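Hello again, I could really use a second opinion on something today. I've been staring at a protein lately and its backbone has me curious. You're getting the sequence in one-letter code plus the fold written as tokens. I'd be grateful if you could look everything over and explain what you see. No rush at all, and the record is pasted right below:
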Amino acid sequence: MSDLVLIIEDEEDLVTTLEFNLKREGYRTLSALDGEKGLQLAMQTPPPDLVALDLMLPGISGIEVCRRLRENERTQDIPILMLTARGEEIDKVVGFEAGADDYVVKPFKIRELLLRIRAILRRTKPGQKPDMAILVFGTLKVDLNGHRVWISEQEIFLTAIEFRMLATFLKRKGQVQSRDALLNDVWGVNAFVVQTRTVDAHVKRLREKLGSAGKYIETIRGVGYRFKDAPE
């Protein structure tokens, strides 16, 4: 069965355009014009495979919808693509902190949106060959199969993007990762489609969530990032 995309967006013309193009690409769609209805549809069985969520919604804001989806056990793992007309860095950071996996800024090209959706669904698709490993590094423990992370035996919760980024760093510890390389390997898209500042925002948030283990991720000025080759 084709993937189901839930669109939560209050601009009816945009919803119609998105539904048309998504269906033409083989996706199934659901849509809601406000946050409350969107939350109801997200709780259905089976749940959507991805949520395209507008930041500015009447009633319940897109940020609040995102938080509630992440707090609910049934919907916490659904990838969320944020749609926003506001491109300021602070808005992106707030969206990532609420649990969004990626964003596009309006007005956007439909092709760009479809590329983002395809990339997100590809990397979160179930049934792919598992890595069959639990990685331990200092106070950090990562269960690649169970999508779980612990710091000093205390479990923390990461978004799909944050988890994939951490796993990529761990598998390549000691190696410098450029922002372009991370965009390609973690997001599945290149720097022509997504701004490299997206990487910086996610690394910042990942470090915050890792707490004392955040120091394992080093910034290499003018190049990118590197996960330490050995814990202190």
User: Anything to note?
Assistant: The two ends are 48 Å apart (CA to CA). DSSP finds eight helices and twelve strands in the chain. Residues 134-227 form a domain with the Arc Repressor Mutant, subunit A fold (CATH 1.10.10.10).
